[in-house]
From TrEMBL:
Listed transmembrane segments: none
Single GO BP term: carbohydrate metabolic process
Hydrolase in keyword set: yes
Glycoside hydrolase 35 catalytic domain location: 5-152
Record family assignment: Belongs to the glycosyl hydrolase 35 family.
MF (Gene Ontology): hydrolase activity, hydrolyzing O-glycosyl compounds
Official protein name in the record: Beta-galactosidase-1-like protein 2
Keyword Hydrolase among UniProt keywords: yes
Taxonomy, superkingdom: Eukaryota
Keywords: Glycosidase, Hydrolase
InterPro entries, per the entry: GH, Gly_Hdrlase_35_cat, Glyco_hydro_35_CS, Glycoside_Hdrlase_35
Length: 156
C-alpha cells in the first residue's frame, strides 16, 4: 500500500509535468508551509524533542530542516528557469513575520540559514522571496538579499 501513491508524490515529476503544460512554478518548500496544514506541514516527530523550538535557529530543528531541504531542493535544482526548467522563484519560509510575539525580534539567523541552504543546493540565480502582511508585521520576516513580497490584504 505504501507504494501505491508514490508516482503522485514525486516532486520532480510534478514540476516536470507543470513544465509540459507550459506552467511556471513557484516553489514553497517550507519547512513551515502554512497554518492551514496541521503543524504547518511539519512532521509531528519533531516534537519528540521536548525542548524543540520550531522555526528557529535551534540546532535540533535546524538539522531536521536542513536534511529536508537538501532532499527536496536537490531534486529540483536542475529545473530552474535559467536552466530551461519552469521554476521561477523559491519562497524562504512562509509568513515568518507573523511568527512570534508582537514586535519581538524574529530569528533572522534562522531565515539566513534557510537562505544559505537554498543557495548551497543550487538556487543561486532564481528569485528568492519572503511573503508577509506588511501592514501588520512590517518587515519582521524579511532578510537582506531576498525580495519581500507584500500581502496588503486587510483583515477585519
Amino acid at each position: 500500500l505504501g507504494e501505491d501513491m508514490s508516482s503522485f508524490l514525486d516532486i520532480r515529476s510534478f514540476v516536470e509535468m507543470a513544465q509540459q503544460e507550459d506552467l511556471f512554478v513557484i516553489v514553497r518548500p517550507g519547512p513551515y508551509i502554512c497554518s492551514e496544514w496541521e503543524f504547518g506541514g511539519m512532521p509531528s516527530w519533531l516534537l519528540r524533542d521536548n525542548t524543540m523550538h520550531v522555526r528557529t535557529n535551534y540546532e535540533g530543528f535546524r538539522l531536521a530542516a536542513e536534511n529536508y531541504l537538501i532532499n527536496v531542493l536537490g531534486q529540483l535544482s536542475g529545473l530552474q528557469f535559467l536552466e530551461g526548467g519552469p521554476i521561477i522563484a523559491v519562497q524562504i519560509e512562509n509568513e515568518y513575520g507573523t511568527f512570534g510575539y508582537n514586535d519581538h525580534p524574529r530569528d533572522k539567523l534562522y531565515l539566513n540559514f534557510l537562505k544559505s541552504v537554498t543557495e548551497a543546493n543550487g538556487f543561486n540565480d532564481t528569485l528568492l522571496f519572503t511573503s508577509d502582511n506588511v501592514l501588520i508585521h512590517y518587515d519582521w520576516g524579511a532578510i537582506d538579499g531576498v525580495l519581500q513580497t507584500a500581502n496588503f490584504k486587510k483583515y477585519r
